[in-house]
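The aim of this short unit is practical: by the end, you should be able to scan a pair of folded records and say something sensible about each. We start with the first protein, listed as its amino acid sequence and then its structure tokens.
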Amino acid sequence: MPSLAEMRPSFPNSLLPSPQIKVCGLTLLEDALVCVAAGINAIGINFWPKSKRFHPFAQASAWLDAVPEQITRVAVFVNADESEVTKIMHSGLLEVAQFHGDESDSYVQKFLDAGIPCIRALSVRTPEDLEKIPLCPAPTILLDAYQPGVYGGTGRTCDWELAAQAVRAFPEKRIILSGGLTPANAAQAFHEVRPAALDLASGVEISPGVKDAALIRQLAKSVRSAMAPCPP
């Protein structure tokens, strides 16, 4: 199965046999290695200083090169200076930039033009919010729950019905579902929404930035088992 970075923009969500899984907000190498062993497709490192899961690049760079290349490494930014994004992405330690703030389309386009795969996060609470999706230059859209003044990581559940509408309406986009997902509801979320990927942070944590190995393994097992074809 292709990684988040390798999936083509034209790959229809409706044809995905099973979702990619991204675990976000990592701060420890051992948690990254658990994700690799469990078959998780991508990990996210949060570089927003106001986040509960903020992990300075100086610290992340000390262990990211020890993470096997089979897992996609995503840098999460919120309204960061372009120079900061450029520095981190040019380090070669992360492959995908995720923009989770109020970044403009032109801001995102600059990095796409530079050959950097990008994920654009959007908070949704009404059908009108979905109108932003086709206007966004990024081929991959992460849908998260809306909470004023907060940029993700709240543990609130995204509106699955709205997310499913987005998947059906914009098959040219890769839709990632985030917000309030846990090992207990992830498989159901995939069946109801059919996104290209599921993104979890608080749902597999002991505390902000520290993951629970048992929950990560449970997540991978429950999602992949639910997607397995039934025996004849």
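Turning to the second protein, read its sequence before its tokens, just as you did above.
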Amino acid sequence: MTAPEFARTIKRAELEVDDGIFTKGAQIVVEVGGERVLDLAMGDSGLGVPMTSEQVLRVYCTIKPITVIAIAQLVERGLLDLDDPLEARLPRCRALAGGVTLRHVLTHTAGLHRPMGIEMEMTVPAVRRQIVEQTPRPTAWRVGVDAAYSEFSGWQMLGWLIEDVTGEPTREYLRHAVLDPLGLHDTWIGMTEADYNAVLPRLGVNHDLREQGSAFPMLFERSRRVCQETNPAHGGYTTARDLARFYTQVLQGIAGNAVAGLPGAATLRQFCSEARPPVYDQVLDRVSPYGLGFMTSLDQHAFSTACGPASFGHSGNVGASFAYADPERDLAVAVVYNGLVGYEVAFLRREALLTALYRDLDDVFAEAEEAEPRGRGLFARLRNRG
């Protein structure tokens, strides 16, 4: 694939990076039908050196689906049930009392939205679990009806469930059950000492750009302590390449192909499809649906109206990073910015980039149709597949 075929996408990304008020740098990877068709790295890694595709960055809540896949494996094996109350497995968690199930946690209808992630970042790690366990649900919360995105607590509980069921530390289970089988060797949810020492030269830095005219480098995210914390909620480190690879393989699994590290097609479809109808989410501050741990119908999650109705994925820290699949086009997209901005700017930034991308894809598909007699390859095969 040649660069001119994605001229709009490249130009939009360059404008955002060159402006310097939206991000320092960016990684953008697009895969169609399992083939990588765009792989961009531009701008600054956050350390005054050029961004590369191998740069590893913290991607916040974009990492959540990795743990979701581990949970889906355990559900498929019959070791967890979506509708069994969780209180018996995690009896110290006050918010789980009264019949909260795994389905409620995954659809963000369990009332686990407090405390917020930033509060936990500022809390001594040794007492975080105690705080989560002792935090009750809000008064009058209607489990399974009311919705509020759980930034931290819900996914910590998912990690504890993995440990309860498997008898293994969450970090180790995710590594051998999900990350390594999927070939996500540049992805970590809790680094070992050896991991940290090896990846440190490739660790980029996110910058907080929310104050006009200033850029605050979030150097603590590059520290040994933070990188080695097992935080399945928003503590993952990865690359856009690995994120796109993840969604490409999920699409392959949904299509019925056996993929090591993934549950079967029926389970994947269940988790990646709408499980919570569009309702007002008190944290996200929008009406939107949700799957079992995945954002679904991404046009309703401030991605882009161009995203297909079956699209699913996740974003992190107000869209500082995001990755998703659009089954209608057999498309996987991953974008990692290292600039944190406010909600309005972040969503406008994402909408502009994805609108450009889908317009480029439309042109490429049209060109491929014309070139089909000449054996254009990927896009002709996709067209023939119907």
